[in-house]
Amino acid sequence: KLKSSQETALFSDRDCIRASLRSAVAAGSLRRVGRIVRINPDGTIPSLLPKVVDHQLHAPWNSVITATIEATRQTLKNDLISIMIRGSIACGQAKPRISDADFIVVFKADESSSRPQARLSSSKASALRQVAKDLAPQLPCVSKIELTPVPIADYEALQDLDQGVLSSDAILAAVGPETAFLVATSAIPVWGVDMRKSLPALASRCPRVVARDFEDSIYEALNASKQLDGIEPRSRAVRWALKRCLRTAMQARCLEAFSRDLAVCACCAARGASAQRRKELASALLLATSSEADALLSRDTEDLCRSLTTWVSSLLPIRTGPLVSVTPPSVVRTRPGNLLRSALGMVSSWPNVDQLRSQSLLRPTVAKLAGSVQEMEGSEARKVMDRANSVPHPIVVRNAASHWPSTKAGGARKWTLQTLAQRYGREWGLVRVSPCLDFPFVEMSHPFVESGGFNPPSQEVAMQMAEIADRLGQHEAGGTVSPMTTYRAGEYYYWQSTVGEEMMKDVDINGTDPLDAMGTLVQQPRLWLSGSGSVSPTHYDASDSVLVQVLGRKRMLLWPPTALRHLDPYPNSHPLRRRTRVDPRKEGFPENIAAFEVMLEPGDVLLFPGKWAHFTESHSLSASVSLRMRRTHQAT
């Protein structure tokens, strides 16, 4: 029976899923339908645990827990900090001989595992794997014992153990966002410190899955199913891969709710899917809840898993940053493992997602204005640059690029969303994705971004021109794009990628006065394609720049290099290097500096020197081409 009328309605129009659900329940492999919870606006979810959990730890699970605690304590001795049980046993959905017993084991790390990426190779982690292997034959009521190792290497933080807590910095650095999410939403402490008390609220935010990581995990499991000794370990690997497919499919397709229950995940993933996909999801649900090893290890099941993997991967972002940020600098204690992070002040000095999303479209600036950017004819601008042997100050040349094929009114190659999609739809580029209309550049390869020490305010996703044109078109029409690539509560897009070889035919640099007098290109021209209201927050470039407006209108504010110290830029060692901490739209912006303003129309060319900070906002659907140029005497 389905648990509630709400879930009955959820399954009512999915005959194949409902049939497989009934089969699983009738066969005894599925106890009941688990919880489905609504995702909060900040991306967090309520606990997946039932309100009453004591009864779930009775026989036969109490014997599993007792044996695991005893074996783990004997192995880790005084270094053991905490043991938590999670998954189906904790949630009250475990089925004897089918469910796994999943534990999270927190312990004091030895020197060899002081870095999170080394934890699986440490001697203590290896010892835990042996404990799980030895326990499995003694506990036939579970299909597998899994002990997830969580070494804590922050020895100063360990002093907090006397108060029964750990700092959230230490926890997040050790467990990572995915394990932190499991602890916060579906784990029960069974021995030692309750780690849940040490986690920040954002730990219960739904983890985002990257296509490549998802694919790698599935193919690794399928390969293991062929290499492991014994039918049971091999079938468990396939079952795990099927579960992963079902749960990730729901995350990719259902943006408003979350569940780890396989039946709910299959059902939500099936909504709006083709008949073939619905049949595959139904088969995956039956197999994932089955104990028939022969069926799990068949070639048909492997083909099913690979087909679902390909489909789900197409719904996921290609790359994304870490989910949970560490505690703000005001409460971070300076200790050896955290000195650089504290010195950079990288965590809360940038607005969080909710603050960014609350900013209204095209908010008026509070910055003082020194006047408009000086307008010149192309020949006059050339003379000024010849005299100074550089671009001495911002200059705008109106209609200088109006002859470009991409801007020429009525021309066959004039750029619009439709023509870009038609002619260059298969070209790939990087798109910056943001939960709001602010698009701060973030160095995604920075070690603090990759390690999870910094939660970036925007992400990068690879996308084809046809897709970005479609997404921007829907936004301009006031629609909502689905599926989201990165942010469940809504997202916006800014194409920021190099101009391809074919597209360069629409860009006439050499025939544009005064561009032909500016020297050689420092880098390949870049296309900036954005929707109405998109903002590139205040930042500066190292070399002279040119911005050619091709489509739509764009407003810019520019400040001279002498204003940089008042704009408070991040240092070069920061992921937001060359971005500034102050915002010209907010109260408190420095009153002792003034900006030069310009509104660019199609065909206009703006030239400005390096280290001139600039704030940019699109007043309509906008396409611009930027050029970095250098005369022979200038340093790169």
Can you tell me about this structure?
With 636 residues, this protein is an alpha+beta fold. Helix content is 32%, strand content 18%. The chain contains 19 helices and 21 strands. The strands form four sheets. Strands 8, 9, 10, 11, 12, 13, 14, 16, 19 and 21 form a ten-stranded mixed sheet that branches. Helix 15 links the parallel strand 8 and strand 9 (395-397). Helix 3 runs antiparallel to helix 4 (123-135) and helix 8 (231-253) packs across helix 10. The chain is elongated and about 85 Å long. The termini are far apart. 46% of the residues are buried. Residues 1-15, 29-33, 52-56, 112-121 and 319-363 have low confidence and may be disordered.
Secondary structure: helix percent: 25-40%
Q: Termini separation (Å)?
A: 70 Å
Judged by helices, strands and strand pairing, the structural class is alpha+beta
Q: What's the alpha carbon Rg, rounded to whole Å?
A: 28 Å
Give the oligomeric state: single chain
Shape, please?
A: elongated
Number of strands: 21
Number of separate helices: 19
Q: Sheet bearing the most strands, described?
A: 10 strands, mixed
Nearest-integer average pLDDT: 77
Strand content: 15-25%
Regions with little confidence, pLDDT below 50 for 5+ residues: 1-15, 29-33, 52-56, 112-121, 319-363
